[in-house]
Amino acid sequence: MRTFDDDHPGTRIRAQRRLAHLTQRQLAALLPYSYSLLNQVECGARPATEAFLTAVAKALRIDTAVLTGHPHVSTIQQDRREALVRPIRDVLALYDLGYDPDVTARPVGELVIAADQLCATVRATKLREASRVLPGVIAELTSTAWSTPSSEAWRALASAYRSAHDVAVKLGFYDLSTVALDRMDWAAERGSDPCLAAIRQYKRALVHSKSGEYRIGERLIEAGLRILEQAEEGRERLAVTGQLHLGASVIAARAEDQAAVERHIAEARTLAKQTGDASAVHWLSFGPMNVAVHAMSALTQMRQYDDALTAARKIRPPAAFATSRRAHFLIYRARAEMETGNATRALASLSEARHAAPEQTRYHPSTQETIRGLVHMARRTPEALNHLAAWVEK
């Protein structure tokens, strides 16, 4: 079946035209350009000039960025996200400035709890709340770790930096996420915590693989596994090891290396049998359910949509399953449903993901890909799809 990765301005114009319930001739009538040119641009036979895109955006009453795809979100949405992360960006610069007499820090025990709660907040996909609380916690922990150094304080600071990375990634700020991971490594080394250091390599690997640097991602996973050799044996080490194998499966899926995907999923499944549900271990959500979700999403990324749907039908996430992971499952299930021609189910899955984790769903690249595919498939776009597409672009 045809996929919808052939994304160019013409396909985006067609998608937005259909969302506006306009035929090509109706849209052409609103433009200072011919119907013939519009037809050729939509099918990819002619390039879309800047002036042409501006005219189409004006006629459709949308932001030009929606048609150019740089970025996939409107300027207004980009500004809103930037406002969320700007205080985080500022506080990450404080790491080497030492004790700050202007910061009134809570006792270390309370700050450890606050850092742990931040992980839970991000896991629940409450990104606005996490963005609001993070800068203060990092500032307090930074000042405390310098004034009264302890492994406990440094580890809590490393955990807070990890949350900063997670927020940055979910909002699409990969440059900021890299800075946060560097700070995480800096603090984890002072806290002498090999598990946190390994988690940092795991997250670095996923960031690099997003830009197609699969071999770098693989090497970072391997480095993380070597670091874990320094950790004490036990459930914590097993869970982090398993999560690194799941990360490796994601990278292998993006590289379309099915043998590597199967190998890493098998390793993770074996470890999950030993740990059981280890969701609370570093808030990684590791366990048999997360292994199953990774296996399904890997099939989707390798475009094995029928197999992905077969796997998805066997997955029943429990109520306690992390909201972020539940939304991830629903978003990839929707992609597989769309690609196999079941537009109704795909729309329902995306709507469910939106209800569970609105911020994560809105900014997830696969959400926009699936919506474009659904618009492409529809002879007449249903109102629910119109509302969902408009919400994503807000």
From TrEMBL:
Q: A Pfam family this protein belongs to?
A: HTH_31
By its UniProt entry, which InterPro entries does this protein fall under? Answer: Cro/C1-type_HTH, Lambda_DNA-bd_dom_sf
The protein's matches in Gene3D superfamilies, at most eight in alphabetical order, are given as: lambda repressor-like DNA-binding domains
Q: Where is the HTH cro/C1-type domain?
A: 13-67
| Entry protein name | Transcriptional regulator with XRE-family HTH domain
* Source organism of this protein record: Streptomyces avidinii
